[in-house]
Amino acid sequence: MAWLIGIDEAGYGPNLGPLVMTAAPIAIPDDQMPVDLWQRLHKAVRRHTDDDDGRLLVADSKQVYSPARGLAPLEKSVLAALHTSFYWRHGLALALNLKSLLGLLCPVDLLDGQQTDLHAESWYHGNTTLPLAADGAVLTAATESLREACADCGVFIGVCRSVVVCAPRFNDLTDSCDSKAAALAYGLTLLLRESMANAHGDDAIDFLIDKHGGRNQYGAMLTQALAAGFVWGREEGAGRSYYEVEGLDRPVRITVQPRADLEHFSVALASMVSKYVREALMAEFNAFWQGHVAELEPTAGYPGDSSRFFEQIRPAMQTLGLCERQVWRRR
Predict the structure, then answer these.
(1) Residues 105, 56, 11, 191: is their CA dihedral positive or negative?
(2) pTM for the complete prediction?
(3) How far apart, in whole angstroms, are the C-alpha atoms of residue 160 and residue 198?
(4) Hey, what CATH topology would domain 5-282 get?
């Protein structure tokens, strides 16, 4: 088998709410490589929004979810994939609330205290019932269809892992390096290490990472994350940065490229899981502040509207004893 592990984030741009980064691993039989997973799993999944025939939509999360389109298509695809992966790994169905989902996606040993950070947030409780919008019967049928499609071609969806970076840690990381890219590096380092630990055996691993910003050189960061190996930079440019890691017990390759979620199924899935987790957390964020500020309209946390929301909650923050850096991400 060969592992394709996609990594992508949601919430890098906002001033309010968490950054979520996810690794989505998929194991493929060696004789099927290279593979187009949209084609291999076509009985259960699709990649285009304009051919809705009941199959799961797997694409860039911005194509799957918008306020006008609603959360149901994103939620159906994400929960079907997560139900499939955790069922195969643990022999159980997901317990349907946010806290239990995060307990599976974000174990304490991965997050190095990050789960404690989330529980320290005044707005988080985790009791939100899932699914939020998808029909339960439709979700069950979609999950069964995905399991069958995977079984038919020997594809295995591994256990996704997520990192949740809330405002206090985001600000600390940003201040330490004078760049908010430090938050991405932090999440990526944790996910690379956890993914290596979870991909048992000596199967080859291809990390496929969606690029953000203008950075082209990742060698130093990857060397720190994968300290047991030697990272060779084979190509570094605006269109792609490609690395091979030697000295490990298996071949490891790392590709960072813009819009990787358009080309790679695993990156699209990582993008969607990150977006879904952030949307579920933002539902609790908005509900908390609406409980303290009358007639407060919800926010997605992005620049522009975030300033409106933040000014409206300032008096409540003072009452609750919360300072600006605990809520507002300064970059």
Answers:
(1) positive
(2) 0.95
(3) 10
(4) Nucleotidyltransferase; domain 5 (3.30.420)
